[in-house]
Amino acid sequence: xxxxxxxxxxxxxxxxxxxxxxxxxxxxxxxxxxxxxxxxxxxxxxxxxxxxxxxxxxxxxxxxxxxxxxxxxxxxxxxxxxxxxxxxxxxxxxxxxxxxxxxxxxxxxxxxxxxxxx
Amino acid sequence: xxxxxxxxxxxxxxxxxxxxxxxxxxxxxxxxxxxxxxxxxxxxxxxxxxxxxxxxxxxxxxxxxxxxxxxxxxxxxxxxxxxxxxxxxxxxxxxxxxxxxxxxxxxxxx
Lengths: 118, 110
Fold this sequence. Notes:
By secondary structure, chain A is mainly β.
């Protein structure tokens, strides 16, 4: 149980285009979903947190107009990288929690999406 | 923001040996979690230890937590080639957010 999928697993796009990444909880309802970014050989950095049906909360330094997050249902959140540039190339990982925002809640991670912007 | 600092950055051991890695953090925590990440993949949750716990075991994994020193250690006993991965600690403070350390890359040689 508690499986999270991401699609696509990798994507290559041209500079200036937009890319949408999907995160789905397959066997549970995800009250809260999280989006992380990981640069090569570095740690995960939280970008934003979203609750179903409400606006995402972005971490400091993350441009909300560039990284659009939509948590349209209890099983789906999407991250759209708008007007992508080479510096946006990274590994994007989502996670989902079925219990909300308590400190002890477990986050279940997706397999990640490798984005390369040419 | 990144709170955890892990050492060593990299560790290479022979199959069957034990692997120990450490994590230090700066602020008070509610719990600390350890994750494994195979190359280019997502994270797998290994173990969670709460701030009022000192030690926890799960299979070949042993985690300790010393809140006075703000540090934790992860021990993998009798390592296997399949344990080759990066290991991250992540702390949770008063809110729900995970703050990850830089990770330790473990290579287990056959």
